[in-house]
Design goal:
This protein has ten helices and five strands, in the order αβαβαβββααααααα. With 233 residues, it is of the alpha/beta class.
Length: 233
């Protein structure tokens, strides 16, 4: 049985976890390759950087989405992390990387917690937020990330839809054109579906643009690659 945390308890637990993490420590953000996972990874990366962490690496999973597979665990270990954040990839009671601290942030039904890890799950919340909304909510007290709301919204539009009853989605609909948000969501999702598997194009596009309109109108190489992927799909 996984102990359920309230949202306030989860925010406090994340703050305590980060307070015990040296600002210069190697922090790895390992996330799913879909729109929810990529946007969650980008929001957490930016939050950590703005909170003063100086050695943050973000890495999407391979097409094999099992974070506990030999190949994905090897990729995490190769980064030599002091601390790992695992996003949108579930949870189980097996260790990930020996010697690394671990925090799992997720909305799926958990199947356990790795030894010594912190599990922040929204599985028993009502309503259940997707991972990008969950990460945004947990990170909001840690740094000024209001400008990242549209990124979290893209993950939500992909995972739970525009009618999901979350305040952030209502706020984002007032600030940005829904047509731009939907187009950006389609572009971000295309990266994982094309034959040329490059989810980093989606992450780089999100990191390089300040709004969904700027992203969808961009002629940057990353966005061009996303358009090509969408056309192929």
């Amino acid at each position: 049985m996984i102990a359920a945390m309230t949202p306030d308890e989860a925010r406090a637990a994340l703050a305590s976890f980060l307070a015990a993490t040296p600002r210069e420590a190697r922090v790895l953000v390992f996330h799913d390759f879909d729109a929810d996972g990529v946007t969650a990874g980008v929001v957490l990366q930016r939050t950590l950087e703005r909170a003063g962490f100086t050695n943050v690496q973000r890495l999407p999973t391979m097409r094999e989405r099992d974070a506990w597979s030999e190949a994905n665990r090897a990729r995490m270990a190769d980064a030599r992390p002091h601390t790992i954040f695992l996003l949108d990839l579930g949870s189980r009671d097996e260790p990930l990387v020996d010697g690394a601290r671990c925090c799992i942030i997720d909305h799926h039904r958990p199947d356990g917690t790795p030894p010594g890890a912190l599990l922040l799950t929204a599985y028993r919340w009502d309503p259940i937020p997707n991972t990008s909304l969950l990460v945004y909510d947990l990170c909001a007290p840690l740094a000024d990330i209001e400008d990242l709301d549209w990124i979290a919204a893209i993950g939500a539009l992909s995972d739970v839809g525009e009618r999901a009853p979350f305040p952030l989605l209502a706020a984002v609909r007032k600030r940005y054109a829904m047509s731009d948000l939907k187009e950006a969501t389609a572009l971000v999702n295309a990266a994982r579906r094309a034959s040329d598997y490059e989810p980093e194009n989606a992450a780089r596009a999100l990191l390089a643009h300040a709004s969904p309109r700027e992203l969808v109108r961009s002629e940057s190489p990353e966005v061009a690659a996303l358009r090509a992927a969408r056309e192929e799909v």
